[in-house]
Amino acid sequence: MSGISAESFLEPARKLGFRFWAGVPCSYLKPFINYIIDAKDLVYISSANEGDAVATASGAALAGQRAVVMMQNSGLGNAVSPLSSLNWVFRLPVLLIVTLRGDPEESDEPQHELMGQITSGLLDMLDIAWSWFPTREADVSGALIRATSHMDRTGLPFAFIMRKGAVRPHALRSHPGASQRAALDLENAAQADAARPSRRDVLEQVVAHTRVQDSIVIGSTGFNGRELFAIDDRPNHLYMVGSMGCAASLGLGLSLARPELHTVVCDGDGAALMRMGNLATVGAYAGQRFRHLLLDNGTHESTGGQATVSGNVRFTLAAQACGYGHTERYVGNGSIARFLGAAAGPGFMHIQTRPGVASDLPRPTLSPAGVKRRLMEHFGFNCAWRNAGA
Predict the structure, then answer these.
(1) pLDDT tens-place string over residues 129-183
(2) Of the residues 106, 257, 286, 296, which has the maximum number of CB atoms within 10 A of its CB?
(3) 3 state DSSP class of 167
(4) This model's pTM is above 0.90
(5) Rounded to 5 degrees, what are φ and ψ at 315?
């Protein structure tokens, strides 16, 4: 089996004082996250977005602790502001582990292609020294010593760029995110996973109660979009890729441009947590035909099932406080049909779903640009860029 073990990197890092870890999950990072969650004397903060992870780790650095931030390279965009205006300005060093999705030497999803080409250049522009993540256990200690020496000397971050397969799988022995689970399920503590609907159950109801001719259904990044495609690939569907957390923002723009259509956003808890400020924007601007469904299974399921902190959030109260005209929680059969047909809006529904995904869940067969073109043609959205990239 290729790649190093999680232990062979994390234990030398621990000896050098790296005990504080923050980040947003990526499937490449699952072995590290599992190892850290199981470790009694390591701290893992599951951050809402990569910029928050950088800022949190920088706070630990300000307190004199060595800290690590883990992220997919797609999240570098979220982290540019703190890296350039916090870490660089205050000279607060954090160790970055950035996974290389869209590696030019590997086949990957289309949303990663551009960032894969520019990751190293973006780090250079941010004045962040970097090297490739070590792929031999014999090289780990030396790589870490060089990184810490650079950070101690300059006060600036240092990055390891991690390629696919750099770290072997590591099984989780404890409950995922156990340290965050104590306060979970504030709104419905007694509701067991088995009693909750599945993601497919919910999306089948959405499909059944939205019409092709006058509604746009947006499936957020990850399994929501793929499950929506698997149920029925309709021309009024849009499957988000990348741009995690932006489904509701995209839906808001669509709904404002075409207020006569019903816009239905099927969001995920990890995505919604990443950009919770957008609830206030939707609450202020969206119209009565905007519907926002939050499918909350408490995990980042598409990257390995790492826990989110969604159980600590009363989403319906947050949406209500942000100005949504109608908010409710899913309570069983008929809920979604009533919610989609409610007169008041914008509407928000929190739906606690059970984790789980079919092993053979397909991916959309149309390219993202093809999905865009089909939707625009279906509704007669004519513009110069309708056929671009398709």
Answers:
(1) 999 999 999 999 999 999 999 999 999 999 999 999 899 989 888 765 544 443 4
(2) 286
(3) strand
(4) no
(5) -60, -40
